[in-house]
Amino acid sequence: MEDLIGRPVLVHPELTTDPADRQGQLGTVSHVSYDNEVIEVSFADKHRSLYTTDTLLVLKPHSELFRDMMDALRDMDAQDFKILLSISMILENGTPRQQHEALGMALINEQILRSATIPLSSRLELTLPQDREPHWQKGTGR
């Protein structure tokens, strides 16, 4: 999970209980607690707050976003498609700063946010090695 440090994240806009009151704000992962999946997020104003992985959103992997865009093309507004295509291109070739900006682009409307992001917890489940201890595998004891 060291590769999470510096990753842009979005505090879920519909989070109902956030003592830091950062719903819908962009931040950067600054620390990861391995034992209980708590993530420390730093914000532009230098404040930090702790979140669980299911309360933070990240951009989908490029291939997944592109596939989902193509599947939903007929039902999608042209402007939303253009924005998602821009996000997808940034994911494929962009700098870390551009990827942070791409996450901000996902906030334009609810459709784009839903299409472009997934909870950080889902992303971690996708990247866990299959040879890990049983309690680290998807669906057991979480």
Number of helices: 5
Shape: globular
Intertermini distance: 17 Å
Strand fraction band? 15-25%
| pLDDT averaged over residues | 85
N-to-C order of helices and strands: EEEEEHHHHEH
Radius of gyration (Å): 15 Å
Number of strands: 6
Tell me the strand order in the biggest sheet.
Answer: 4-3-2-1-5-6
Helix content percent band: 25-40%
Main sheet properties: 6 strands, antiparallel
Structural class comes to alpha+beta
Describe the structure.
The chain has helices at residues 62-72, 78-93, 96-105, 110-116, 120-127, and strands at 8-11, 26-33, 38-42, 48-52, 56-59, 117-119. It has 142 residues and is an alpha+beta fold. α1 packs antiparallel against α2 (78-93), α2 (78-93) runs antiparallel to α3 and α2 (78-93) runs parallel beside α4.
Features:
disordered C terminus, alpha+beta, 142 residues, 37% helix, 20% strand
Question: What is the structure about, briefly put?
Answer:
By secondary structure, the protein is α+β, with helices and mostly antiparallel strands. Helices cover 37% and strands 20% of the residues.
Q: What layout of secondary structure does this protein have?
A:
Layout: E1 8-11, E2 26-33, E3 38-42, E4 48-52, E5 56-59, H1 62-72, H2 78-93, H3 96-105, H4 110-116, E6 117-119, H5 120-127
Antiparallel strand pairs: 1-2, 1-5, 2-3, 3-4, 5-6
